[in-house]
Design goal:
By secondary structure, the protein is mostly helical. The chain contains 2 helices and no strands.
Length: 73
């Protein structure tokens, strides 16, 4: 399975989690290629940042909906 370039955004949250899991599996192997380790870690950092942003955006949307529901009471 090929990994996207280090700075390319994933197709979505689920895709980011899948790719992160694949990266973790690769770097956890005893025969990990040290020459590609830094690239894998860099890509993982991009994916983690993306996931955090998506969670933050979802939290804001939820807060807005809850606030609107509370205002209607």
């Amino acid at each position: 399975r090929m990994t996207a370039s280090a700075d390319q955004p994933p197709a979505g949250y689920a895709a980011a989690l899948d790719e992160l899991e694949a990266i973790l599996d690769e770097i956890d192997r005893p025969d990990v290629d040290v020459d590609v380790l830094a690239t894998k870690v860099q890509r993982a950092a991009v994916l983690i940042g993306y996931c955090r942003d998506r969670i933050g955006a979802a939290r804001l949307q939820i807060d807005t909906v809850v606030a609107d529901l509370s205002a209607e009471d």
